[in-house]
From TrEMBL:
Species per Swiss-Prot/TrEMBL record: Halococcus hamelinensis 100A6
Domain of life, per lineage: Archaea
Keywords annotated in UniProt: Heme biosynthesis, Lyase, Magnesium, Metal-binding, Porphyrin biosynthesis, Zinc
Binding site for Zn(2+): C117, C119, C127
Alphabetized InterPro entries for the sequence: ALAD, ALAD_AS, Aldolase_TIM
Chain residues that bind 5-aminolevulinate 2: S294, Y333
CC annotations in GO: cytosol
Protein name (database record): Delta-aminolevulinic acid dehydratase
Example GO molecular function: zinc ion binding
Annotated residues for binding of Mg(2+): E253
Transmembrane segments: none
E.C. number: 4.2.1.24
Quaternary assembly: Homooctamer.
Group of enzyme by EC: lyase
Length: 342
């Protein structure tokens, strides 16, 4: 054969590495950790094999395990000792995340990021305060199975503007406890600006905001809602999280967050939304993060358990693909497992 082009020439050992376009490093990865104020022992998370909720007393130890694999950053999630209507334990000075952060910053060198949201802290499980009407309606119907939230009516859902103040307080309390970066995930309009204002007002202008900018209303969050006990008690999140059908809207969200002062922009989930990761990457010069979420983790584990997939291989390939699509940082439950192989 008279072939001018033989792409296979570049694929031989020795050359393969030299022409590799994407490199995955342990320092690209952020490991989520769950700290639970309701337990004195580590509790395995059934739907996320290998992950546990740890008590506050073991938060630093858990983070040290992450660091031992070469991963240098964690995202801290808290399960509070009690919940209420407004999620007040989310900004308590002695709240679960605040106590864990103090221990973590005392005892480790990790870069500690916190998830700023109210859904783990509110009884109704929504990512903000409800309007009075939504609250009354929920209370009135919860016993017979709840109600569909909002029915598309803004007066029957989360009160966007009343939530902003609370998110500011949460972020400020995290910074006071030692958070190196805060990551608002409530999909509240104006959340980045409100948090930036609260941080600056309290003297934390050096603390960056990583915004969950393009956060989709995704069924892939299922296992997380077990892990962090943050499932909505009624209705769903489609009044505030994005429609999976939309990509251009993600770019508008990104633009707004940049205007409001975001430092890093996140797309979540990752694998089903790699086109969005790529578009955001091409749209902005800011760092892009992608969240390889709980359902993406659980499905690979489930298939591996059946012997249908090689877990180490598919985990590595998944993270490499997220990086190739344009993510600079990757939040993933595979962080430790993959870092150990790099
Ligand atoms: C809190 C939050 C969620 C996740 C991260 N932060 C749950 C949600 O929005 O429903 C999901 C992470 C995952 O599934 O791994 N709002």
């Amino acid at each position: 054969m008279d072939l001018t082009h033989r792409p296979r020439r570049l694929r031989r050992d020795g050359l393969r590495g030299l022409v590799r376009e994407t490199d995955l490093r342990p320092t690209d990865l952020i490991a989520p950790v769950f700290v639970d104020a309701t337990t004195d022992e580590r509790v395995p998370i059934e739907s996320m094999p290998g992950h546990e909720r740890v008590p506050v007393s073991q938060a630093a130890e858990r983070v040290a395990e992450v660091e031992a694999t070469g991963v240098e950053s964690v995202m801290v999630f808290g399960i509070p000792e009690s919940k209420d209507e407004r999620g007040t334990r989310a900004w308590a000075d002695d709240g679960v995340v605040q106590r864990a952060l103090r221990a973590i910053t005392d005892e480790t060198d990790v870069f500690a990021i916190t998830d700023v949201c109210l859904c783990e802290y509110t009884q109704h499980g929504h990512c903000g305060v409800l309007t009075d009407e939504a609250y009354e309606r929920w209370e009135g119907t919860a016993t017979d199975g709840g109600t569909t939230m909002g029915d598309g009516r803004p007066d029957l859902t989360v009160d966007n503007d009343a939530t902003l103040d609370l998110l500011g307080k949460v972020a400020e309390s995290h910074a006071a406890a030692g958070a190196d970066m805060v990551a608002p995930s409530s999909a509240t309009d104006g959340m980045v600006g409100a948090i930036r204002g609260a941080l600056d007002g309290a003297g934390y202008e050096a603390v960056p905001v990583m915004s969950y900018a393009a956060k989709y209303e995704s069924a892939f969050y299922g296992p997380f809602r077990d892990a962090a006990d943050g499932a909505p008690a009624f209705g769903d999140r489609r009044h505030y999280q994005m429609d999976p059908a939309n990509a251009r809207e993600a770019l508008r969200e990104v633009d707004l967050d940049v205007e409001e002062g975001a430092d890093v922009l996140m797309v979540k989930p990752a694998l089903p939304y790699l086109d969005v990761v790529r578009q955001v990457r091409d749209h902005t010069d800011y760092p892009v993060a992608a969240y390889n979420v709980s359902g993406e983790y659980a499905m690979l584990h489930a298939a591996a358990e059946k012997g249908w997939l090689d877990l180490d291989e598919v985990a590595l390939e998944s993270l490499l693909s997220i990086k190739r699509a344009g993510a600079d940082l990757i939040l993933t439950y595979f962080a430790e497992r993959v870092a150990e192989r790099l």
